[in-house]
Amino acid sequence: MGAPSTWIAGMAGAKPGILMRATPRLGTSSYSQGWAPASEFADRAEVYKVGQKTCVPVDCYQNVLVTNEWDAAAPEEGVQRKYHAPGVGYVRVGFEPGDEEEETLVLEKIRHLSPKALVEVRQQALKLDKRAYEARKELYRHTPPAEHTPLVG
User: At residue 114, does pLDDT exceed 70?
Assistant: First the structure.
């Protein structure tokens, strides 16, 4: 039951990491995206390119940040390349050329939720959080439960 690779910072030696640098620049060192020895999670990332252009079915984006990400515990598994468009987030995910995986994900649709739909999604997220606490009390009792926060805007 549950996701075997799930981990919580501070438990079983797990440490949080950085999803993305606040000011991404070329030439900076790679950074940890988190470390969880019990789940064998040791992902790292680095800035690969800045100021790029990429097109996906939704739109073409300028000033795209491209990062490389890999599992430091298993670098032979390849390098995932992620394209981050300002104000959007990930618009493309692929692998280095020549990588055996050759899986690519691209943004094909953007759907803006109405305030009512957003409330429904938040309610579902709170239900999932409650379920996690019920199913894995020994794990989640060390963390605060998710809370409803009012929508801003």
Answer: yes
